[in-house]
Write a structure and sequence with these properties.
Order of helices and strands: HHEHHEEHH
Distance between the termini: 23 Å
Number of strands: 3
Strand content: 5-15%
Radius of gyration: 20 Å
Strand order of the largest sheet: 1-3-2
Shape: elongated
Largest sheet: 3 strands, antiparallel
Oligomer: single chain
Length: 139
């Protein structure tokens, strides 16, 4: 049976490794986003990714998924709509609400950034020892 101190050391070591990996992934995301012609803050890219994965939705639902105020979501949508990366349509069910969607331009931006992220992460993973890759694949 493992000593409690050893178990705590394992938890701390794994926590540190995951924290380091998360910082690396944020850096990869920032680098991938910076390669896009348009300047897109990380929060706005997150909004595009949510729409890409979930489909069109009401602004309030988008704000909830992103854990931001509806006014913050509205500002992000306004900025992205001004460069045609999102579109707004009246909700067909009520005609009073707005549904935010991802037009082809926004979808292309998400795909391009995701491809760059994937390539960067693949290069990092390829440099890892096989035993480390195996350990991460089991998480």
């Amino acid at each position: 049976m493992a000593r409690p101190e050893a178990a705590a050391d394992d938890v701390n070591a794994l926590t540190d490794a995951i924290l380091t990996a998360s910082r690396l992934l944020v850096a990869v995301s920032a680098k991938s986003i910076a390669a896009v012609e348009e300047t897109i803050p990380l929060a706005q890219f997150r909004l595009l990714v949510v729409l890409d994965s979930r489909g069109p939705m009401k602004l309030i639902g988008l704000a909830q998924l992103m854990a931001v105020n509806p006014s913050a979501a509205t500002r992000m949508v306004d900025r992205l709509a001004s460069v045609d990366m999102v579109d707004r349509q009246p909700n067909p069910a009520t005609r009073r609400e707005v549904v935010v969607g991802l037009p082809p331009v926004g979808r292309q931006v998400v795909r391009g950034i995701t491809e760059r992220q994937r390539a960067e992460i693949a290069a990092i993973v390829a440099r890892m020892p096989e035993s480390t890759r195996y350990g991460w694949s089991r998480l």
